[in-house]
Amino acid sequence: MSDLMARLLALVHSPAGAEPLAVMRLSMVDWLACGIAGADEPVARIVRDMVLEEGGAGQARLFGGGAAPMRVAALVNGAASHALDYDDTHFAHIGHPSVAILPAALAVAEHVGADVSALTSAALRGTEASVRVGLALGRGHYQVGFHQTGTAGAFGAALAAAILLDLDEARTAQALGLVSTRAAGLKSQFGTMGKPLNAGLAAAGGVEAALLAARGFVSNPGALEGQNGFLSTHRADGAPHQPEGWLMTGVSHKFHACCHGLHATLEALASLGPLDPAAVRAVRIETHPRWMTVCNQPEPATGLGAKFSYRTVTALALLGHDTAALDSYTDALACDPAVAALRDRVTVEAVDTVAETAARVTFDTAAGPLIAGFDLDTPLPLAERAQRIRRKAAALLGPDGAEAAWRAVEGGTVAEIAALLGPV
Fold first, then answer.
1. What is the pTM of this model?
2. For labeling, which of 90, 105, 258, 376 is most exposed (least CB within 10 Å)?
Protein backbone atom coordinates (compact mmCIF):
# COMPACT_ATOMS: atom_id res chain seq x y z
CA MET A 1 0.00 0.00 0.00
CA SER A 2 1.32 3.45 -0.90
CA ASP A 3 2.26 5.99 1.76
CA LEU A 4 -0.45 8.44 0.75
CA MET A 5 -3.17 5.79 0.62
CA ALA A 6 -2.12 4.57 4.06
CA ARG A 7 -2.31 8.12 5.42
CA LEU A 8 -5.78 8.64 3.95
CA LEU A 9 -7.07 5.39 5.40
CA ALA A 10 -5.55 6.25 8.78
CA LEU A 11 -7.66 9.41 8.88
CA VAL A 12 -10.77 7.28 9.40
CA HIS A 13 -9.80 6.49 13.00
CA SER A 14 -7.43 9.38 13.78
CA PRO A 15 -8.55 11.24 16.92
CA ALA A 16 -9.54 14.86 16.33
CA GLY A 17 -9.29 17.52 19.00
CA ALA A 18 -11.74 20.29 19.73
CA GLU A 19 -10.21 22.85 17.36
CA PRO A 20 -10.43 20.85 14.09
CA LEU A 21 -14.04 19.93 14.83
CA ALA A 22 -14.89 23.54 15.74
CA VAL A 23 -13.38 24.80 12.48
CA MET A 24 -15.31 22.15 10.57
CA ARG A 25 -18.56 23.33 12.14
CA LEU A 26 -17.76 26.91 11.12
CA SER A 27 -17.19 25.70 7.58
CA MET A 28 -20.53 23.88 7.68
CA VAL A 29 -22.37 27.09 8.61
CA ASP A 30 -20.41 29.00 5.97
CA TRP A 31 -21.22 26.33 3.35
CA LEU A 32 -24.92 26.34 4.19
CA ALA A 33 -25.06 30.12 3.87
CA CYS A 34 -23.33 30.04 0.49
CA GLY A 35 -25.51 27.20 -0.80
CA ILE A 36 -28.83 28.63 0.33
CA ALA A 37 -27.93 32.05 -1.08
CA GLY A 38 -26.66 30.50 -4.32
CA ALA A 39 -29.64 28.22 -4.93
CA ASP A 40 -31.24 30.56 -7.48
CA GLU A 41 -28.07 31.25 -9.44
CA PRO A 42 -28.35 30.10 -13.09
CA VAL A 43 -25.88 27.25 -12.69
CA ALA A 44 -27.74 25.94 -9.64
CA ARG A 45 -31.14 26.15 -11.36
CA ILE A 46 -29.93 24.44 -14.53
CA VAL A 47 -28.29 21.50 -12.74
CA ARG A 48 -31.19 21.15 -10.29
CA ASP A 49 -33.80 21.21 -13.08
CA MET A 50 -31.87 18.58 -15.03
CA VAL A 51 -31.68 16.28 -12.00
CA LEU A 52 -35.34 16.72 -11.06
CA GLU A 53 -36.43 16.01 -14.64
CA GLU A 54 -34.52 12.73 -14.56
CA GLY A 55 -36.30 11.70 -11.36
CA GLY A 56 -35.19 8.90 -9.09
CA ALA A 57 -35.44 8.11 -5.41
CA GLY A 58 -35.58 11.21 -3.22
CA GLN A 59 -32.74 10.21 -0.93
CA ALA A 60 -31.33 13.65 -0.17
CA ARG A 61 -32.52 17.25 -0.35
CA LEU A 62 -31.34 19.84 -2.84
CA PHE A 63 -30.48 23.50 -2.39
CA GLY A 64 -33.52 25.33 -3.76
CA GLY A 65 -35.98 22.51 -3.18
CA GLY A 66 -36.63 18.93 -4.17
CA ALA A 67 -34.88 15.66 -3.45
CA ALA A 68 -32.86 13.24 -5.54
CA PRO A 69 -30.59 10.18 -5.32
CA MET A 70 -27.51 10.75 -3.19
CA ARG A 71 -24.92 11.12 -5.92
CA VAL A 72 -26.92 13.60 -8.01
CA ALA A 73 -27.97 15.49 -4.89
CA ALA A 74 -24.25 15.92 -4.26
CA LEU A 75 -23.85 17.18 -7.84
CA VAL A 76 -26.56 19.81 -7.41
CA ASN A 77 -25.47 20.92 -3.96
CA GLY A 78 -21.81 21.16 -4.91
CA ALA A 79 -22.60 23.36 -7.89
CA ALA A 80 -25.08 25.50 -5.93
CA SER A 81 -22.78 26.08 -2.97
CA HIS A 82 -19.91 27.15 -5.24
CA ALA A 83 -22.12 29.25 -7.53
CA LEU A 84 -21.35 32.47 -5.67
CA ASP A 85 -17.65 31.63 -5.31
CA TYR A 86 -17.99 32.74 -1.69
CA ASP A 87 -17.02 29.50 0.05
CA ASP A 88 -13.87 28.52 1.93
CA THR A 89 -10.39 27.87 0.50
CA HIS A 90 -7.37 25.92 1.69
CA PHE A 91 -4.19 27.47 0.33
CA ALA A 92 -2.07 24.39 1.00
CA HIS A 93 -3.44 23.13 -2.30
CA ILE A 94 -5.44 26.13 -3.56
CA GLY A 95 -8.77 24.35 -3.44
CA HIS A 96 -12.27 24.88 -2.06
CA PRO A 97 -12.82 21.90 0.25
CA SER A 98 -16.32 22.41 1.66
CA VAL A 99 -18.13 22.57 -1.70
CA ALA A 100 -16.69 19.20 -2.70
CA ILE A 101 -16.85 17.39 0.66
CA LEU A 102 -19.99 18.61 2.41
CA PRO A 103 -22.46 17.94 -0.45
CA ALA A 104 -21.26 14.33 -0.52
CA ALA A 105 -21.23 13.95 3.26
CA LEU A 106 -24.65 15.51 3.84
CA ALA A 107 -26.33 13.51 1.07
CA VAL A 108 -25.08 10.22 2.50
CA ALA A 109 -25.66 11.23 6.13
CA GLU A 110 -29.26 12.19 5.36
CA HIS A 111 -29.98 8.89 3.61
CA VAL A 112 -28.36 6.59 6.19
CA GLY A 113 -29.75 8.49 9.19
CA ALA A 114 -26.41 9.61 10.64
CA ASP A 115 -26.31 12.18 13.42
CA VAL A 116 -24.61 15.59 13.24
CA SER A 117 -21.58 14.34 15.14
CA ALA A 118 -20.99 11.60 12.57
CA LEU A 119 -21.55 14.06 9.71
CA THR A 120 -19.07 16.56 11.17
CA SER A 121 -16.48 13.87 11.85
CA ALA A 122 -16.73 12.42 8.33
CA ALA A 123 -16.62 15.87 6.73
CA LEU A 124 -13.52 16.77 8.75
CA ARG A 125 -11.72 13.64 7.60
CA GLY A 126 -12.81 14.11 4.01
CA THR A 127 -11.59 17.70 4.07
CA GLU A 128 -8.27 16.63 5.53
CA ALA A 129 -7.95 13.98 2.81
CA SER A 130 -8.57 16.53 0.05
CA VAL A 131 -5.88 18.83 1.45
CA ARG A 132 -3.37 15.99 1.72
CA VAL A 133 -4.04 14.73 -1.80
CA GLY A 134 -3.71 18.34 -2.93
CA LEU A 135 -0.32 18.62 -1.22
CA ALA A 136 0.84 15.46 -2.95
CA LEU A 137 -0.33 16.81 -6.31
CA GLY A 138 1.59 20.00 -5.64
CA ARG A 139 1.69 23.38 -7.33
CA GLY A 140 2.64 21.96 -10.74
CA HIS A 141 -0.74 20.24 -10.96
CA TYR A 142 -2.57 23.50 -10.30
CA GLN A 143 -0.32 25.66 -12.42
CA VAL A 144 -0.63 23.48 -15.51
CA GLY A 145 -4.39 24.03 -15.42
CA PHE A 146 -6.08 21.55 -13.07
CA HIS A 147 -8.64 22.79 -10.55
CA GLN A 148 -7.86 21.19 -7.18
CA THR A 149 -11.45 21.60 -6.00
CA GLY A 150 -12.48 19.09 -8.64
CA THR A 151 -9.43 16.82 -8.50
CA ALA A 152 -8.24 16.60 -4.88
CA GLY A 153 -11.79 17.33 -3.70
CA ALA A 154 -13.12 14.12 -5.24
CA PHE A 155 -10.86 12.03 -3.00
CA GLY A 156 -12.09 13.83 0.10
CA ALA A 157 -15.70 13.37 -0.99
CA ALA A 158 -15.10 9.65 -1.48
CA LEU A 159 -13.53 9.25 1.96
CA ALA A 160 -16.32 11.17 3.71
CA ALA A 161 -18.97 9.09 1.92
CA ALA A 162 -17.13 5.83 2.70
CA ILE A 163 -16.97 6.71 6.40
CA LEU A 164 -20.70 7.45 6.58
CA LEU A 165 -21.47 4.24 4.70
CA ASP A 166 -19.36 2.44 7.32
CA LEU A 167 -17.10 0.79 4.74
CA ASP A 168 -14.23 -1.31 6.03
CA GLU A 169 -10.65 -0.43 5.16
CA ALA A 170 -10.50 -2.64 2.08
CA ARG A 171 -13.65 -1.17 0.55
CA THR A 172 -12.64 2.38 1.49
CA ALA A 173 -9.38 1.77 -0.40
CA GLN A 174 -11.42 0.54 -3.36
CA ALA A 175 -13.50 3.74 -3.27
CA LEU A 176 -10.37 5.91 -3.23
CA GLY A 177 -8.88 3.89 -6.05
CA LEU A 178 -12.04 4.15 -8.12
CA VAL A 179 -12.49 7.88 -7.64
CA SER A 180 -9.01 8.29 -9.11
CA THR A 181 -10.55 7.66 -12.51
CA ARG A 182 -13.42 10.12 -11.88
CA ALA A 183 -11.59 13.11 -10.36
CA ALA A 184 -11.44 16.02 -12.81
CA GLY A 185 -11.63 19.78 -13.13
CA LEU A 186 -9.93 22.48 -15.20
CA LYS A 187 -9.07 26.10 -14.43
CA SER A 188 -10.15 26.99 -17.96
CA GLN A 189 -13.71 27.03 -16.53
CA PHE A 190 -12.96 29.91 -14.15
CA GLY A 191 -15.38 32.79 -14.63
CA THR A 192 -18.05 30.50 -16.09
CA MET A 193 -20.70 28.05 -14.85
CA GLY A 194 -18.14 25.30 -15.36
CA LYS A 195 -16.20 26.27 -12.24
CA PRO A 196 -18.99 25.55 -9.73
CA LEU A 197 -19.85 22.43 -11.71
CA ASN A 198 -16.32 21.17 -10.95
CA ALA A 199 -17.25 21.13 -7.26
CA GLY A 200 -20.49 19.26 -7.94
CA LEU A 201 -18.73 16.69 -10.11
CA ALA A 202 -16.17 16.06 -7.35
CA ALA A 203 -18.90 15.54 -4.75
CA ALA A 204 -20.94 13.29 -7.03
CA GLY A 205 -17.90 11.27 -8.08
CA GLY A 206 -16.98 10.67 -4.46
CA VAL A 207 -20.44 9.43 -3.54
CA GLU A 208 -20.60 7.24 -6.63
CA ALA A 209 -17.23 5.63 -5.91
CA ALA A 210 -18.18 4.90 -2.29
CA LEU A 211 -21.56 3.44 -3.26
CA LEU A 212 -19.97 1.16 -5.85
CA ALA A 213 -17.29 0.04 -3.39
CA ALA A 214 -20.02 -0.73 -0.84
CA ARG A 215 -21.53 -3.13 -3.38
CA GLY A 216 -18.26 -4.95 -3.90
CA PHE A 217 -17.02 -3.09 -6.98
CA VAL A 218 -13.33 -3.81 -7.51
CA SER A 219 -10.93 -1.18 -8.86
CA ASN A 220 -7.20 -0.67 -8.58
CA PRO A 221 -6.29 0.70 -5.12
CA GLY A 222 -2.96 1.73 -6.67
CA ALA A 223 -4.73 4.06 -9.07
CA LEU A 224 -3.84 7.01 -6.85
CA GLU A 225 -0.07 6.63 -6.73
CA GLY A 226 0.86 3.58 -8.81
CA GLN A 227 1.98 3.25 -12.41
CA ASN A 228 -0.32 5.30 -14.67
CA GLY A 229 -2.04 6.46 -11.50
CA PHE A 230 -3.56 9.83 -10.74
CA LEU A 231 -0.42 11.46 -9.36
CA SER A 232 1.85 10.36 -12.18
CA THR A 233 -0.58 11.36 -14.93
CA HIS A 234 -1.65 14.73 -13.50
CA ARG A 235 1.63 16.59 -13.22
CA ALA A 236 2.09 15.93 -9.51
CA ASP A 237 5.19 17.56 -8.04
CA GLY A 238 4.26 17.69 -4.36
CA ALA A 239 6.50 16.70 -1.46
CA PRO A 240 6.46 12.96 -0.69
CA HIS A 241 6.47 13.60 3.08
CA GLN A 242 3.59 15.47 4.66
CA PRO A 243 3.35 17.39 7.94
CA GLU A 244 1.70 15.96 11.01
CA GLY A 245 -1.42 17.35 12.66
CA TRP A 246 -4.75 18.46 11.29
CA LEU A 247 -4.11 20.70 8.28
CA MET A 248 -7.82 21.46 7.92
CA THR A 249 -7.59 24.07 10.70
CA GLY A 250 -5.70 26.26 8.23
CA VAL A 251 -8.77 26.65 6.02
CA SER A 252 -9.46 30.25 5.06
CA HIS A 253 -13.00 31.58 4.94
CA LYS A 254 -14.03 34.23 2.46
CA PHE A 255 -15.23 37.63 3.54
CA HIS A 256 -15.38 39.10 0.03
CA ALA A 257 -17.67 37.60 -2.63
CA CYS A 258 -14.95 36.97 -5.20
CA CYS A 259 -11.98 34.71 -5.94
CA HIS A 260 -9.91 34.15 -2.82
CA GLY A 261 -6.78 35.17 -4.69
CA LEU A 262 -8.09 38.75 -4.63
CA HIS A 263 -8.76 38.97 -0.91
CA ALA A 264 -5.29 39.97 0.26
CA THR A 265 -5.45 42.94 -2.13
CA LEU A 266 -8.88 43.96 -0.85
CA GLU A 267 -7.81 43.62 2.79
CA ALA A 268 -4.72 45.73 2.08
CA LEU A 269 -6.86 48.39 0.45
CA ALA A 270 -9.31 48.37 3.36
CA SER A 271 -6.48 48.89 5.85
CA LEU A 272 -5.92 52.36 4.39
CA GLY A 273 -9.49 53.48 4.99
CA PRO A 274 -11.65 55.30 2.42
CA LEU A 275 -9.71 56.86 -0.47
CA ASP A 276 -10.94 59.51 -2.89
CA PRO A 277 -10.91 57.71 -6.25
CA ALA A 278 -10.43 61.01 -8.05
CA ALA A 279 -7.15 61.50 -6.19
CA VAL A 280 -5.81 58.08 -7.21
CA ARG A 281 -3.71 58.50 -10.32
CA ALA A 282 -2.50 54.90 -10.52
CA VAL A 283 -2.57 51.65 -8.54
CA ARG A 284 0.10 48.94 -8.65
CA ILE A 285 -0.75 45.51 -7.26
CA GLU A 286 2.06 43.07 -6.58
CA THR A 287 0.98 39.45 -6.29
CA HIS A 288 2.44 35.97 -6.52
CA PRO A 289 2.87 34.81 -10.15
CA ARG A 290 0.56 31.85 -9.58
CA TRP A 291 -2.49 34.10 -9.42
CA MET A 292 -1.86 35.68 -12.80
CA THR A 293 -3.65 32.82 -14.57
CA VAL A 294 -6.40 32.55 -11.96
CA CYS A 295 -7.86 35.95 -11.15
CA ASN A 296 -6.26 38.49 -13.43
CA GLN A 297 -8.94 38.90 -16.08
CA PRO A 298 -8.07 42.41 -17.31
CA GLU A 299 -11.43 43.61 -18.70
CA PRO A 300 -14.26 41.26 -17.70
CA ALA A 301 -17.65 42.01 -19.23
CA THR A 302 -19.69 39.96 -16.75
CA GLY A 303 -20.27 39.87 -13.01
CA LEU A 304 -18.80 36.36 -12.90
CA GLY A 305 -15.70 37.55 -14.68
CA ALA A 306 -15.38 40.50 -12.30
CA LYS A 307 -14.94 38.01 -9.46
CA PHE A 308 -11.67 36.98 -11.11
CA SER A 309 -10.24 40.41 -11.85
CA TYR A 310 -7.73 42.30 -9.68
CA ARG A 311 -8.32 45.48 -11.64
CA THR A 312 -12.12 45.34 -11.43
CA VAL A 313 -12.44 44.52 -7.73
CA THR A 314 -9.93 47.27 -6.90
CA ALA A 315 -12.01 49.75 -8.89
CA LEU A 316 -15.20 48.56 -7.22
CA ALA A 317 -13.70 48.93 -3.75
CA LEU A 318 -12.29 52.40 -4.46
CA LEU A 319 -15.68 53.53 -5.76
CA GLY A 320 -17.32 52.42 -2.52
CA HIS A 321 -19.00 49.23 -3.66
CA ASP A 322 -19.12 46.61 -0.92
CA THR A 323 -16.97 43.72 -2.15
CA ALA A 324 -18.62 41.47 0.44
CA ALA A 325 -22.04 42.06 -1.15
CA LEU A 326 -23.37 39.79 -3.90
CA ASP A 327 -24.91 42.66 -5.84
CA SER A 328 -21.50 44.24 -6.38
CA TYR A 329 -20.77 41.60 -9.04
CA THR A 330 -23.26 42.22 -11.82
CA ASP A 331 -22.85 42.47 -15.57
CA ALA A 332 -23.96 46.10 -15.38
CA LEU A 333 -21.32 47.07 -12.82
CA ALA A 334 -18.59 45.14 -14.66
CA CYS A 335 -19.32 47.33 -17.70
CA ASP A 336 -20.01 50.56 -15.82
CA PRO A 337 -17.99 53.44 -17.38
CA ALA A 338 -16.83 54.71 -13.97
CA VAL A 339 -15.58 51.25 -13.01
CA ALA A 340 -13.86 50.83 -16.38
CA ALA A 341 -12.15 54.23 -16.14
CA LEU A 342 -10.74 53.51 -12.69
CA ARG A 343 -9.87 49.92 -13.62
CA ASP A 344 -7.66 51.27 -16.39
CA ARG A 345 -5.47 52.99 -13.79
CA VAL A 346 -4.67 49.64 -12.15
CA THR A 347 -1.71 47.48 -13.11
CA VAL A 348 -0.96 43.99 -11.79
CA GLU A 349 2.58 42.65 -11.47
CA ALA A 350 3.82 39.15 -10.71
CA VAL A 351 6.51 39.21 -8.02
CA ASP A 352 8.18 35.97 -6.91
CA THR A 353 8.95 37.30 -3.43
CA VAL A 354 5.29 37.93 -2.58
CA ALA A 355 3.73 34.97 -0.77
CA GLU A 356 0.80 33.18 -2.42
CA THR A 357 -1.45 34.36 0.38
CA ALA A 358 -0.27 37.99 0.31
CA ALA A 359 -0.39 41.16 -1.75
CA ARG A 360 1.26 44.59 -1.79
CA VAL A 361 -0.63 47.59 -3.14
CA THR A 362 0.82 50.99 -3.99
CA PHE A 363 -1.43 53.98 -4.68
CA ASP A 364 -0.01 56.93 -6.59
CA THR A 365 -1.93 59.96 -5.31
CA ALA A 366 -1.54 63.69 -5.61
CA ALA A 367 -0.41 63.77 -1.98
CA GLY A 368 2.23 61.08 -2.55
CA PRO A 369 2.38 57.29 -2.58
CA LEU A 370 0.37 55.11 -0.20
CA ILE A 371 1.55 51.55 0.38
CA ALA A 372 -0.28 48.70 2.09
CA GLY A 373 0.12 44.96 2.37
CA PHE A 374 -1.77 42.01 3.76
CA ASP A 375 -1.23 38.26 4.18
CA LEU A 376 -4.23 35.93 4.47
CA ASP A 377 -2.01 33.43 6.26
CA THR A 378 -2.04 35.65 9.34
CA PRO A 379 -3.80 33.50 11.99
CA LEU A 380 -7.36 34.55 12.75
CA PRO A 381 -8.48 33.64 16.29
CA LEU A 382 -11.33 31.13 16.36
CA ALA A 383 -13.69 33.54 18.14
CA GLU A 384 -13.06 36.29 15.60
CA ARG A 385 -13.47 33.82 12.74
CA ALA A 386 -16.80 32.68 14.18
CA GLN A 387 -17.97 36.27 14.57
CA ARG A 388 -17.14 37.13 10.96
CA ILE A 389 -18.86 33.99 9.68
CA ARG A 390 -21.95 34.89 11.71
CA ARG A 391 -21.99 38.35 10.09
CA LYS A 392 -21.48 36.87 6.65
CA ALA A 393 -24.28 34.32 7.14
CA ALA A 394 -26.61 37.06 8.37
CA ALA A 395 -25.82 39.16 5.30
CA LEU A 396 -26.58 36.21 3.01
CA LEU A 397 -29.58 34.70 4.79
CA GLY A 398 -30.88 37.39 7.11
CA PRO A 399 -30.51 37.20 10.91
CA ASP A 400 -33.16 34.50 11.35
CA GLY A 401 -31.78 32.31 8.58
CA ALA A 402 -28.25 32.62 9.91
CA GLU A 403 -29.37 31.72 13.42
CA ALA A 404 -31.25 28.67 12.12
CA ALA A 405 -28.11 27.44 10.33
CA TRP A 406 -26.01 28.00 13.43
CA ARG A 407 -28.44 26.14 15.70
CA ALA A 408 -28.77 23.20 13.31
CA VAL A 409 -24.99 22.72 13.02
CA GLU A 410 -24.18 23.31 16.68
CA GLY A 411 -26.93 21.28 18.32
CA GLY A 412 -29.50 20.10 15.80
CA THR A 413 -30.02 17.04 13.65
CA VAL A 414 -29.00 16.11 10.12
CA ALA A 415 -32.68 16.33 9.17
CA GLU A 416 -32.77 19.93 10.45
CA ILE A 417 -29.65 20.79 8.46
CA ALA A 418 -31.10 19.19 5.32
CA ALA A 419 -34.40 21.03 5.78
CA LEU A 420 -32.56 24.33 5.46
CA LEU A 421 -31.68 23.49 1.85
CA GLY A 422 -35.30 23.77 0.73
CA PRO A 423 -38.65 21.96 0.70
CA VAL A 424 -38.95 18.47 -0.71
1. 0.89
2. 376
